[in-house]
Specification:
Oligomer: single chain
Number of helices: 14
Domain Aldehyde dehydrogenase: 28-486
Distance between the termini: 76 Å
Strand content: 15-25%
Family: Belongs to the aldehyde dehydrogenase family.
Shape: globular
InterPro entries: Ald_DH/histidinol_DH (IPR016161), Ald_DH_C (IPR016163), Ald_DH_CS_GLU (IPR029510), Ald_DH_N (IPR016162), Aldehyde_DH_dom (IPR015590), Aldehyde_DH_Superfamily (IPR050740)
GO molecular function, one term: succinate-semialdehyde dehydrogenase (NAD+) activity
Helix content: 25-40%
Number of strands: 22
Keywords: Oxidoreductase
Amino acid sequence: MALNLDRPDLLRSNNFIGGQWCSSVVGASYPVCDPATGEAIAIVADSTAADAQAATVAAHQAFDSWRQQPAAVRAQLLKRWHALILEHTEDLARLISREQGKPMSEARGEVAYGASYVDWFAAEAVRSYGDIIPTPVRSKKMLVTKEPVGVVAAITPWNFPLAMIVRKIAPALAAGCTVVAKPAEDTPLTALALVALAEEAGLPAGVLNIVTSSREQVSEVVGAWLDDGRVRKITFTGSTAVGKLLARDSAPTLKRLSLELGGNAPFIVFEDADLDAAVEGLMAAKFRNGGQTCVSPNRVYVQESVYDAFADKLVARVQSLRVGPGDHDDSQIGPMINARAVDKIERHVQDALARGASLLTGGQRLSGGDTNVPNYYAPTVLGDASHEMELSQDETFGPVVPLFRFRDEEEVVDAANDTPYGLAAYFYSRDVTRIWRLAERLQTGLVGINEGALAAESAPFGGVKESGYGREGSRYGLDDYMATKYLCQGNLA
């Protein structure tokens, strides 16, 4: 089924380099497929290192002019972009849903969420303050200023094709950086539409450049940026394994890095928790985007005394979820991004069952009717999970909830922190003294306290340990795109 857009010109297939829409240098292309049907919905440029280098040249040439623009001018351009994004919410949501699979209601929410970062950093652009340092002698003036780091390469994932790329581009542009971007190979259409709207907002040529590539070409495209000293920063959201490769390969040119990587989020329910609220918080945190989020709870710990009651309430809620194509009004869980993702989910569930887990609901691929493609998996709850299971050590990235029993706070804190990852954690308790004690002890960058929805444009987002470093959003988010410069003027006596 063809994409039906109110603005058909938002469906782009070419790269955008130096203010021009252009095909790959070698003329190659690849299909973008709808995970709900498996059908190709668009054909986009399959770029090479030459395309990536052309984007770098354009961004480098535009940098001096863009950095010298008054912050208020950059802010006004971002505000116009923000207005256009909101004006075209429905078209952008359709693109998100068709190429990524999430239900339209969630896709609309992603547009609003992503746009909020553009609005936020439009305001932050004019608040990039410096400092005056008290001097030890009368003959000097000592000042601190902040400057844009330079050309930024943004590499983004498929699970939030709009939010993840604007969360990087908006602060970079606000800071005065220019950008080269590569969206995920599975979901380039939303990113291309966003760039078309940025062009419409009046962004100067070369300030924002985007190249698309297939999975086979991605290392060549990104490699060109890693090797190029003109690219001064890499910002990446994706797997820890890839993040480590980027850190290693950017070392020769000592690029700055912002890495938002994998997680293994614990969700803890204490016996004094409001169980109904905890179930709803888990549903919001776990089943958004079908569990395909980096902050999705991967290990759910429930205190023994309330384990059975919580499990019963959770299973009833999970069984009520409706699975289907994202463009169906009643769908709450869409398809996974591709069959490989479902293979991993299936492997995790089968491993857990073989190691003693009990199947409380779900546990199989779906087929027949609207779900008759290999990309659907039933929302699943597993009981009696243990740390020997593969799903305890590796993100499942799907609609699977494993329940672990625990006896006391000490035991569950040790279990929650027993992972190399540290992105998000959640817990439910009505004990005020426990709340602050536990919040400090959990080794993550984000903590949800009696809350399952964490992200906001005004809050810093990022992890610790092998979940990466750097922060996106908030007043701290601009600093990742700026360098601090110290100025000392003498001979004033």
